[in-house]
Amino acid sequence: MVDALSSVRWKRHQDAVVELSEHGIVLIVEETGCLQAKVYLKRELFLVYEYAAEGRPRFGLSLGLFVDCLNTFSAPGHAPVIEIRYPGPDMQLLLK
């Protein structure tokens, strides 16, 4: 997941839009309105993928910060289990 997200991280402070659906997660990155990249993470890539929202929630995030947080949980040669939840109590993305 980190490798896929890092491939569309063109600069350190890159913003992205995340869209959630019953099929998985789509992350969209745009650069000054002329270049767009999308990363599709199908639900089959996750050990457990639970989706109970009505519609398709969309929210923005700092891609650099998100990738750095995921890297914090990972170790070379080891695939950690990370729980990602949205929305949290204050509409935030939670990582455990």
The level of helicity is 10-25%
- Mean pLDDT metric: 87
Structural class: alpha+beta
Order of helices and strands: HEEEEHEE
Distance between the termini: 15 Å
Radius of gyration using CA atoms only: 13 Å
Mass-distribution shape:
globular
Structure report:
With 96 residues, this protein is α+β, with helices and mostly antiparallel strands. 17% of the residues lie in helices and 33% in strands. It has two helices and six strands; from the N terminus they run αββββαββ. The strands form two sheets. Strands 3-2-1-4 form a four-stranded antiparallel sheet. The protein has a two-stranded antiparallel ribbon with strand order 5-6. The protein is globular and about 35 Å long. The mean pLDDT is 87.
What does this entry show, briefly?
By secondary structure, the chain is α+β, with helices and mostly antiparallel strands. It has helices at 2-6, 63-73, and strands at residues 15-21, 24-31, 35-42, 58-62, 84-85, 94-95. 17% of the residues lie in helices and 33% in strands.
Summarize the topology.
Blueprint: H1 2-6, E1 15-21, E2 24-31, E3 35-42, E4 58-62, H2 63-73, E5 84-85, E6 94-95
Antiparallel strand pairs: 1-2, 1-4, 2-3, 5-6
Q: Notable features of this structure?
A:
about 100 residues, about 15% helix, two-stranded antiparallel sheet
